[in-house]
Write a structure and sequence with these properties.
By secondary structure, this protein is of the alpha/beta class. It contains five helices and eleven strands; from the N terminus they run H-E-E-H-E-E-E-H-E-H-E-E-E-H-E-E. Helix 1 crosses helix 5. It binds cytidine-5'-monophosphate. The site of cytidine-5'-monophosphate (C5P) has 14 residues, from strand 3, helix 3 and strand 6. The site of cytidine-5'-monophosphate has 14 residues, from strand 3, helix 3 and strand 6.
Length: 214
């Protein structure tokens, strides 16, 4: 979805920075592209751009754990079983949500297989974002690794809004419209940042978001 949102945002005239891990997709023309390969690199890249943005959209399915140690040399096989110690990665969305004087619209994604809206609503509260996009990934016919999707948009205040099954490009255009409208009500800064499993995007100085009351 991140690449589709980046494309839709470029199409509507935003300046976009797309921060992505290695994926088998071509970044949209017109977006600034930042390639990262670890969750720490994505964390740093997102934080570098977030405060200059009007909107940050975090779509990336960032790994929840990473190896505690990295071997500079080949690890030789030993025994029938082998365990790797894993430690938690830093949660990028959560870290942005905790910024006390945040001046950008913060949007997260919640890929869920059951109790989709309930779990997404919990993430919206816990990670303190403004909007969360609930994505049912229990079906192989939409969601991840598919060109189609269906989503429910949850807001901190207000009724959820559904976008029914459609190509990701169409869903992305609808989402960009909704985010732009929402941001117009909140901020007048000049940038937008979006992230996904392996990507984030930033829209800089030309976004038309007017200021509203603090
Ligand atoms: O808790 P969960 O991983 O399901 O939350 C999904 C949301 O959190 C997505 O917006 C994802 O981009 C973001 N996330 C993150 N950093 C992580 C893990 C998830 O920003 N380390």
């Amino acid at each position: 979805m991140g690449y589709a949102i980046a494309e839709a945002a470029v199409e509507t005239g935003h300046d976009v920075v797309l921060i992505s891990g290695p994926v088998n997709l071509t970044p949209p023309c017109g977006a600034k592209f930042v390639l990262v390969s670890t969750s720490d690199e994505m964390f740093d890249a997102v934080h570098q751009h977030a405060d200059k943005s009007d909107v940050c959209i975090l779509c990336a399915a960032v790994a929840d754990y990473r190896p505690a140690n990295i071997s500079p040399t080949k690890i030789k096989k030993r025994g029938e079983r082998f365990s790797l110690e894993l430690i938690r990665t830093r949660d990028i969305l959560d870290s942005l949500g905790r910024q006390p004087d945040r001046q950008f619209l913060l949007i997260g994604f919640a890929a869920e297989t059951n109790h989709v809206e309930e779990n997404a609503a919990q993430k919206l509260r816990e990670k303190n974002c403004d909007i969360i996009i609930a994505n049912d990934v229990s079906s192989t016919k939409s969601g991840m690794e598919s060109d189609v999707n269906e989503v429910t948009i949850l807001f901190q205040n207000g009724a959820p809004q559904k976008i029914s099954r459609a190509p990701k490009k169409i869903i992305a255009r609808e989402l960009v419209k909704i985010f732009t409208k929402f941001a117009t009500k909140m901020f007048d800064k000049k940038n937008v940042t979006i992230t996904e499993t392996q990507l984030s995007e930033v829209i800089p100085n030309s976004s038309p978001f007017p200021r509203i009351a603090d």
